[in-house]
C-alpha cells in the first residue's frame, strides 16, 4: 500500500535529485532508507557508468525494492545506524527517511564514515514542526483509544541549527541546513496516513485496534497535511 500512496514522497525526492545535477556518471551512490526503490531507480539513471547501493531497515521494503530494481542495484536490509560498507561512496542520498532514526548524533557519524573525502551528502527528511497538527490529533486519539501511545513518538524532527552542529561535529564541511514547508494533499488520505504516518504506531497495537485507531486519526486531520522538510547539503 505504501508504494501506491507515496506520491508526496516522490515529489519531495525530486528536490533532492535536482541538487545532484552535475555528479559524475561513474560515481557510486548510497541511498539510505530506499523504501520500495522508486528513488533508487532514478538515482541509477544519474550514474549510467556507476553503481548504486541501497539500504532500508524494513525487510518488506527491501523485498519490493529488489523486485523493482533486479540486479541493477545492490539492495540490503540494514538499520542506518549499523551501516558498514566495504568501500566508501561518492554520494550519500536520503529522502523522507532519516526522521525515523532515533539517534542523530550516531547517524551523521555513520554516514560520514560511508563517504570518501570530498564526497557529497544530500538529504531531505522531516524537520522541526513537521506534522505538528497531525501529531496533536494522534495524541488526542491515543488518549481515547490507546493510552500506551500517549506521548510516544517514533520520529526525530530536528531543527536546522542542531543538525548543522551535528554534521560539523561528524566532520562535514560546506554544511547547509534549511526548512521548507510542503503542504501536502494526498490522493488517498486514509492510505497515506496509515502507511506514511501511523505505521510505527499501528505496529505497537493489537491487530483488532489498528483499523479503528487509524480511522479515528484520519477523521481528525485536515488538509493540507502540515509537512515541513529539513533539507541538508554537505561535503565530507
In short:
This protein has 236 residues and is an alpha/beta fold. The chain is built from 10 helices and 7 strands. The chain is 42% helix and 24% strand.
Describe this structure in words.
It is a single chain. With 236 residues, the chain is an alpha/beta fold. The protein has ten helices and seven strands. The mean pLDDT is 94.
Assign a percent range to the helix content.
40-55%
From N to C, what is the helix and strand string? HHEHEHEEHEHHEHHHE
**Range of strand content:** 15-25%
Number of helical segments with 4 or more residues: 10
**Low-pLDDT sequence parts:** none
Query: Biggest sheet, strands in spatial order?
Result: 3-2-1-4-5-7-6
Distance from N terminus to C terminus (CA atoms, Å) equals 36 Å
The averaged pLDDT comes out at: 94
Radius of gyration computed on alpha carbons: 18 Å
Q: Choose one word for the global shape.
A: globular
The SS-based structural class is alpha/beta
Largest sheet entry: 7 strands, mixed
Number of strands: 7
Amino acid at each position: 500500500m505504501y508504494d501506491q500512496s507515496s506520491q508526496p514522497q516522490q515529489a519531495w525526492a525530486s528536490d533532492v535529485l535536482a541538487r545532484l545535477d552535475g555528479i559524475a556518471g561513474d560515481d557510486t551512490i548510497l541511498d539510505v532508507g530506499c523504501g520500495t526503490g522508486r528513488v533508487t531507480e532514478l538515482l541509477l539513471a544519474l550514474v549510467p557508468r556507476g553503481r548504486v547501493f541501497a539500504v532500508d531497515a524494513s525487510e518488506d521494503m527491501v523485498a519490493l525494492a529488489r523486485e523493482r530494481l533486479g540486479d541493477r542495484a545492490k539492495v540490503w536490509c540494514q538499520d542506518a545506524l549499523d551501516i558498514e560498507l566495504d568501500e566508501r561512496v561518492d554520494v550519500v542520498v536520503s529522502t523522507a527517511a532519516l526522521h525515523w532514526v532515533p539517534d542523530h548524533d550516531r547517524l551523521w557519524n555513520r554516514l560520514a564514515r560511508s563517504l570518501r573525502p570530498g564526497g557529497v551528502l544530500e538529504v531531505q527528511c522531516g524537520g522541526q514542526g513537521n506534522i505538528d497538527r497531525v501529531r496533536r490529533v494522534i495524541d488526542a486519539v491515543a488518549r481515547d483509544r490507546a493510552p500506551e501511545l500517549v506521548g510516544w513518538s517514533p520520529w526525530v524532527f530536528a531543527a536546522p541549527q542542531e543538525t548543522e552542529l551535528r554534521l560539523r561535529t561528524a566532520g562535514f564541511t560546506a554544511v547547509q541546513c534549511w526548512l521548507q514547508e510542503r503542504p501536502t494533499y494526498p490522493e488517498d488520505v486514509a492510505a497515506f496516513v496509515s502507511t506514511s504516518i501511523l505505521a510505527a504506531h499501528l505496529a505497537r497495537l493489537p491487530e483488532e485496534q489498528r483499523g479503528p485507531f487509524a480511522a479515528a486519526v484520519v477523521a481528525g486531520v485536515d488538509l493540507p497535511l502540515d509537512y515541513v522538510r529539513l533539507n541538508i547539503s554537505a561535503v565530507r
